[in-house]
Amino acid sequence: MARIGIGIVGGGYMGKAHAVAMAAVASVFDTALRPSLEMICTTTPEGAADKARQFGFVRSTTDWRVLVTDPKVDAVVIASPQHTHKDIALAAFAAGKHVFCEKPLGLGPAESREMLEAARRSGLVHMTGFNYIRTPASQLARQIIANGEIGTVTWFRGEHTEDFCADPAEPASWRTRGRPNGNMGDLSPHIINAALALVGPIASLCADIETVHRARPSPSGPETVTNDDQAQIMCRFAGGAMGHLFISRVATGRKMGYAYEIFGTTGAIRFDQEDQNALWLYKAEGHAGRRGFTKILTGPEHPDYQAFCLGPGHGTGYQDQIIIEARDFLAAIADGKPRWPSFEDGHMVNRLIEAAWASQARRGWVDVASIEGE
């Protein structure tokens, strides 16, 4: 068992999730590499020191450059705002450090392409954080589709819907300022990644993006919202299937509406993250009068479940998804073999988001292949 020094940039919601994951992963999965929480970076000396104490890091800093160049830090987890991603990742690769970066990679495809090229030149491990697709149920869905158990996929409908901005009286905040912090920058990467993981590349799309609540209360009076609230995207997959994506932060009543429905020539699948330990499967076989969707409760027979729990139907949760990501990151470093999703996958998501914005501007269909140079 070898030690690996971990540095995390960011001590907020995701920084904490990754710190907990790195502290737990060796026990859950008996990994060959054993993480040592070496350093955390946040914005103030007092805050950084407090997060180090709380999460169990040896040291803290307010300068990410100190973290990425520290000789005891072997791998860097970037859990800071996306406008910081590119510079941190480039410096980490230059310093010989493996990098795990939360979605989305940087501020768009230009930055993520630069990050991907630096990752490739370095020969180091690089991964992008798309945690929702890591549930045992969604991993099972990927297996079912890959095995041809529902035949050829003909249609995909996906959504990522939440309601944290549904109330027009919700005050203005960082979430309502700037395109990267909007609905397309924040929520769409997850369900776009799911579509790619489950059905494959998207060849073309047509998007409609809007801001529902155009002003928000603020101490100085009404503040103009400068990003989007919801979007719908029609798409055509490279394999021929049709698709539709709906992304919204104003979907009243939805809390974690990461959901999809997939139709194939011989079956279908349904999933909803609000019931994340169940997958619904339909197979067009047997007597027509006895067919119907079967609810499959995840258990030890399904991907990555048994490491957390031996009881079928007991379930896994959000933090477990991050631990699974940590396991794959450490395994990639240990054996020198890349793991999905890499920076390449993160860059592809950014290209699709950019294609959606291009479609909105042109009011028509866009070929995704045309976006690389934009």
3D structure, described in words:
It is a single chain. Helix 1 (13-29) crosses helix 9 and helix 8 (188-199) crosses helix 10. The chain is an alpha/beta fold and 374 residues long. 33% of the residues lie in helices and 26% in strands. It is built from ten helices and 17 strands. A nine-stranded mixed beta sheet has the order 16-15-14-13-7-12-11-8-17.
Topology diagram in text:
Elements: E1 2-9, H1 13-29, E2 33-41, H2 45-55, E3 59-61, H3 64-69, E4 75-78, H4 85-94, E5 98-102, H5 109-122, E6 126-129, H6 136-146, E7 153-161, H7 183-186, H8 188-199, E8 202-210, E9 215-216, E10 223-224, E11 230-237, E12 242-248, E13 257-264, E14 267-272, E15 278-283, E16 294-297, H9 318-335, H10 343-362, E17 366-367
Parallel strand pairs: 1-2, 1-4, 2-3, 4-5, 5-6, 7-12
Antiparallel strand pairs: 7-13, 8-11, 8-17, 9-10, 11-12, 13-14, 14-15, 15-16
Structural class: alpha/beta
Give start-end ranges of low-pLDDT stretches: none
Average pLDDT number? 97
Bulk shape: globular
The number of strands is: 17
Question: Could you provide a short overview of the structure?
Answer:
The chain is of the alpha/beta class and 374 residues long.
Structural descriptors:
374 residues; alpha/beta; 26% strand; globular
